[in-house]
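thought: fold this chain, then report.
action: predict
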Amino acid sequence: MNEQAKAKSTGLASVLGFVKRYSFVLVFLAILVVYAVANNGLTLNAGMNVLRHSAVIGTIAIGMGIVCLTGEIDLSVGSMLALVAGFSVVVFNMTGSIPLTLLFALAFGALCGLVNGFLVGVVQMPAFIVTLATMLIYRSVAQYACQHLPGELIGNGSSVYRMSNELGAYDALYTFGNARIAGVPIVGIVMVLMVALFVYICTSTKFGKKIYAVGSNAKAAHLAGISVPLMKTLVFTIAGALVGLAAFLWVAMNASADPATTGSSYEMYAIASVVLGGISMSGGRGRMIGVLFGALSYDVIDKIIIALKMDALIQDTIKGVILIVVIMIQVAGPQLKEVFSRKGAKRGDTAK
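observation:
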């Protein structure tokens, strides 16, 4: 009887461990089922729309994911998106070159991330305070510049950066942002490729292992010869470059960027995608592949709310509740697993 109880406890611990490891898949499937019911079915086109609408947030969330793996946080990504997207429009209007616009977006995003990384990693200021400050700075600069740059540089928009449709590359860039290959949105393919790249980096490279080491125990990582300040600086810089890529995708999809609203609350959406993807906010635990499922899940939640015709004023409440529940599962999972493991061990000792 004791052996059976021990096996039962061990089995429950194993199940909880499995749920914890693949919670992002289970959460996504559960949300997808709810969406299918609310939408009276699920079509391939609807699925592709989810992939397209998740592209920008998903790309940002990859960067947020590696930042969270080091035990830090970046609240500036939404404002950074507005700033980089706006200035990328300016570069496009000046040069009419898609490659130069992309390179600028990546470089400028990396520079903004470097500012965060230097202050957090080298100066050792709290990431929450640093990125809260740069969140205000980046959006303020984006709005100020839009009001004071010459009209031709911002596409003669009214307080909005607009791509000039007089340039020959306008159609090519806008088509890239909205076209599909075999029914799959190009921007969605870009996001999936970025996820695949960072899954490889985090699982199969020394750099990825150092990210997990810093997040698990920064002091131990330092004693092992890892430069913690450098790692944190690099991680924030990479996150900024990914925001730059997301900004390029945003411009390609929308042909404009509103400095007041573009990226508004995206830092929260990115964090939500990371949490739904199973990455621990305390650092050192989680899988980058989860970010993809997290971003898709968050977009599907939006679509469920729309399908159910819920009041717009209550939407953020629903999202917040879901986020709290997922975090509770993250926190409670290991604790419950430990409880069942201890019970199994005690029963085994009693049987002896």
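thought: worth noting. The chain has one domain: 2-351.
final: tokens above.
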